[in-house]
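User: Hello! I'm new to structural biology and keep hearing that structure can be predicted from sequence alone. Could you demonstrate with Cupin type-1 domain-containing protein? Please show me the input and the output so I can see what each looks like.

Assistant: Of course. The first part below is the input, the amino acid sequence of Cupin type-1 domain-containing protein. The second part is the output, the predicted structure written as tokens.
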Amino acid sequence: MLPVSTLRPVVAMMIALALPASAVPHPISNRATSEELSLNAKLQLADTAVERYQLLSKDEDFVFDFTSSKAPIASSENFHALTGVGASLSMGSLPACSMTFLHLHPRATELFALNSGHVLSEMVPETGPVDSEGNQRVIRAELGTGMMTVYPAGSFHTQVNPNCEPANFTAAFNSEEFAISLVAKQTFSLSDDVIARTFGESIAGEDIEKVRDAIPKDMVLKVEECLAKCEK
């Protein structure tokens, strides 16, 4: 039998571990300052995982259908079961002869896996890594079916599908709300003076607005050389 001096801290720890399971949390509706809280907000305010399960009372709350979703991205915003999980997932298809806009994810690392097709990937990591000539390192990868690459949080990256068939992919993120930043669009949202100095005065002031207007609005860009090849 353990001595009393040893039993006391063990018992105290067992009581502490048992409290979250036995304590009855106050209903969120009583704690909220507004009755208009979204389900996602209620889930974020929940004291325990048990309370989150009570809010997600239906079994179908834990199923996400990519085929019927307006956007092929499951995040805490549209799949509430991910709230508090720290992960999200995207499934999609990169059309033939297309390139994703240069972008980054400010709050998540992305694992990009190719389910079918062929993709050329380019990624620029943080400032510091350099190549053998001392220039900013750019990591290029050629991906085929069943291959994966990683884009650390905050790294610039893009993918090109150089073939005449779509490339299907799955992308996993270590954040339930990973977000997307479009590099060109956000850079040219700055004032003209900042842009001119950033690019070493290589863009004349009167041309900055032309560049802004020329930036494509879509996330996917067409690769003209590939289109010409596929139309033959």
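User: So the tokens describe the shape?

Assistant: Right, they're a compact way of writing down the 3D structure. Reading them back into a model, for example: Confidence is low (pLDDT under 50) at residues 1-24.
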